[in-house]
Amino acid sequence: MTSSMTHGSTLQDTPLLEIDALLDDPGIRIIVCCGAGGVGKTTTAAALGVRAAERGRRAVVLTIDPARRLAQSMGIDLLDNTPRPVDGVEGDGELHAMMLDMKRTFDEIVEAHADPSRARAILDNPFYQSLSAGFAGTQEYMAMEKLGQLRARDEWDLIVVDTPPSRSALDFLDAPKRLGSFLDGKFIRLLMAPAKMGGRAGMKFLNVGMSMMTGTLGKLLGGQFLRDVQTFVAAMDTMFGGFRTRADATYRLLQAPGTAFLVVAAPERDALREAAYFVERLAAEEMPLAGLVLNRVHGSGAARLSAERALAAAENLDEGRIVDQGAGKAAERGSTGSSPTPSAVEPDSEYPYEPKPEPEPESEPEPDSESGRPSAPPTSQLTAGLLRLHAERMQVLSREQRTRDRFTALHPEVAVTEVAALPGDVHDLAGLRAIGDRLASGGLPAGAG
Amino acid sequence: MSRLQVVSGKGGTGKTTVAAALALALATEGKRTLLVEVEGRQGIAQLFETEALPYEERKIAVAPGGGEVYALAIDAERALLDYLQMFYKLGSAGRALKKLGAIDFATTIAPGVRDVLLTGKACEAVRRRDKQGRYVYDHVVMDAPPTGRITRFLNVNDEVAGLARIGPIHNQAQAVMRVLKSAETAVHLVTLLEEMPVQETADGIAELRAADLPTGSVIVNMVRPHVLDEEAVRSAGTAGRRKDIARSLSGAGVSGAAGLVGPLLEQAAEHAQRVELEREQRAALEALELPAYELPLLSEGVDLAGLYQLATELRKLGVDTGADAGGNAQ
């Protein structure tokens, strides 16, 4: 069973994540790619968008800060907050792409929901300027806002979202709630209190808390800061309900059946641990997980040759070469060994023991080099190099397999698709298309055994 | 020699691992280092295979030669409560503030306050002295936010100083900034020999320089050995050569050699392509004109033993941990 497979038996037990079925399902309107930093979320989101469009859907990809060349490959190298059509997509569908401009999104919300003079006051407020320029949670919140806006326009039948490179993958889910609850929470009401409270009954406690707090914060931050915040809060007052309402609506949208979450990970310990957290968290939030995209998985067409055997063989060749190069020296070591069984090179045996297991009958390079005789030493050197390279690859494979198995053991129910590692980066639609093919084919193109 | 080493890097490049290895490497011969975590991910605890770190400094490792590594996971909320306690003797009023949401506001929403608390705590550890007037920690290593956020994270004190124009937070921000912009601090960026991390590193360096923050070194992580050069691979493809390789393989004791030549050459071609890409990325890094160090890829992944191995590598490289040799140890 393990013979020509690059991965062990677990793959057969794990449900396969059917990407094409997902992309073709007209009921699916939103796909959210999430996962730790550096695992290829953005590229995955872009590749899904291209594939969806080429399978006939009207798709839009919302990316967060893509690498420049990836952005260029979709024609969105200029920072832009509105979806632009992507040229070069084949087939009946359409692809739009946009890059989130967090500050612009925030500004637009303010402009849309406040009268001009009030909007001006907010936009000029120093507290607002800092808040909107991206402190904890703003980017996550604005990504959610943008998603809500795109969905509300109903112009696309599939929205693919790349999530922000959060401190923790969970921030994406937490931030909107946090900002929402901050914006109409107790604290804000307290800050507003002096302006609107007017001596209502039951406010006494709040007043005490209020004066203690503003007193303390005022001392700590300086009075001006607190006044800035209060001005900001007063100006934003009419918008707070809207923030909360939209955040809640977007949150419910993410729980709806039309949404599918894809957790993206690389086959590395940290990334998969983060993926496991996310899987658990999505379940707790009742958000629909479609499956795991395991990115940059290594394969080998020569997987039946183990790392140990490859290294042993490479050593054989090296020792043979030493012998070839300096025929005299071989004699010095007084070997011409009795009868080394070719494969029985103890892994820990350095040349002191068996310096010459190699001069086995047909392994001697020189006698049977019909092509061009003395090419033998470079060939054995090259072959040894190929074997070492293979050994390294096999070590990577088994490490990836182990980390993957650990994840599967914890979450056997999660469907998985594997994406074979590419030697280089992706810079164009063709590259994204190739990633899409790999995403859809599920297993590794392991090559002929 | 800088006493505060800030380690950043693109996500996935192993910055936490490098920060931990650096803390171990600096803890030689009786030296004591503090490894600080500011993002609440408990990455340090996982690396050192201990349980989650509380908000207190505790010894987590002993380095060869008797050095000690302490670790601290800074929690912004706790740091703020401590701070209020220290300056205002708040006591239970702190809990009331927490209930009202003021602490949450200050640590998660209020611009920069969180970052002042985090960097402030690290700077305090850098400056702390014992009764004899000696530094408590010879070095402080900070596992900092990723490259995309590092300049804002470190520079936020300026921003706070602008917002909170008077008061203790303002003063604190100014004091922290003095440490961060001095030769006592060096900001290192961890990268891989891949296009996106290198690009992000270059952008990060430019931002740090523009903000007048002291850049340290570039640490290239997970470098794979170069087993074959391109020329060897190119020469390998010819038909005659394939036969030779097959023969050579079976001669070395590999069975079914004929079927292996193709896949092996394919892997070699990928390897050669990588080598070429890595050459380009190295050149891009060289253009940054910063000291660069390379750490090998550990084929077994990073466990505790691997961490010590990386620390040894860093020591061998004689990692230059400061922008300048400041030497203000007194």
Topology:
The complex is a heterodimer of chains A (449) and B (330).
Chain A: H1 10-13, H2 19-24, E1 30-34, H3 41-54, E2 58-63, H4 68-73, E3 84-85, E4 94-99, H5 102-113, H6 116-124, H7 126-132, H8 138-153, E5 158-162, H9 171-183, H10 186-196, H11 204-221, H12 223-255, E6 259-265, H13 269-284, E7 289-297, H14 307-325, H15 327-332, H16 376-410, E8 416-420, H17 429-441
Parallel strand pairs in A: 1-5, 1-6, 2-4, 2-5, 6-7, 7-8
Antiparallel strand pairs in A: 3-4
Helix pairs in contact in A: 3-17, 5-6, 5-8, 6-12, 8-9, 8-12, 9-12, 10-12, 11-12, 13-16, 14-16
Chain B: E1 4-9, H1 15-26, E2 32-37, H2 43-47, E3 58-63, E4 67-73, H3 76-88, H4 92-100, H5 102-109, H6 113-127, E5 139-143, H7 147-163, H8 168-180, E6 185-191, H9 195-210, E7 215-223, H10 230-236, H11 239-251, H12 257-286, E8 292-296, H13 304-317
Parallel strand pairs in B: 1-5, 1-6, 2-4, 2-5, 6-7, 7-8
Antiparallel strand pairs in B: 3-4
Helix pairs in contact in B: 1-13, 3-5, 3-6, 5-6, 6-7, 6-8, 7-8, 7-9, 9-12, 10-12, 11-12
